[in-house]
Specification:
With about 150 residues, the chain is an alpha/beta fold. Helices cover about 45% and strands about 25% of the residues.
């Protein structure tokens, strides 16, 4: 059984909806996938080492990733370096503005870790829309289905 780790910063009701949507997508009943959901502050390098796929959810704060998401990378980057090359990942950013600063901050981290971003970063920008949850669920399902099928 493959494992999907969801590392999601959830400071609001709406970001909690997004994390739940990611969990629902990755936990689709037709798939044989174990799903673990953690906050960035709870996630340790060992959690990532045990994962076969990773979903990162963060907010855009001052045109940058959430501080807790940055803390996750600060604590885990070097212990994971050279350890999980090729790890398939997907990312969603809840952005009140445009999300590009957050995306630009994340991409060099993924490059350094040699993680495989299997879809373009999903930026959920502007005022809250219920369709955001559907988009995150679909993104998570795609990652989990690819893992289950042996594509990733």
């Amino acid at each position: 059984m493959k494992t999907v780790l969801i590392v999601s910063h959830v400071p609001s009701v709406n970001t909690q909806k997004l994390a739940k949507a990611a969990q629902q997508g990755a936990s689709h009943p037709d798939l044989d996938i174990k799903v673990i959901v953690k906050s960035p502050s709870e996630t340790e390098p060992e959690d990532v080492l045990q994962a076969d796929g990773l979903i990162i959810g963060t907010t855009e704060n001052l045109a940058y990733m959430a501080g807790l998401t940055k803390d996750f990378f600060d604590r885990c980057y070097y212990p994971l370096l050279e350890q999980k090359q090729g790890l398939p990942i997907v990312v969603y950013i809840r952005a009140g503005h445009d999300g590009t600063g957050t995306q630009r901050a994340l991409e060099p981290i993924f490059t350094g870790l040699r993680w495989q971003l299997i879809q373009p970063v999903l930026i959920l920008k502007g005022d809250w829309q219920e369709v955001f949850s559907d988009q995150v669920e679909e993104l998570a399902l795609m990652l989990a289905a690819g893992l289950d099928a042996g594509i990733y």
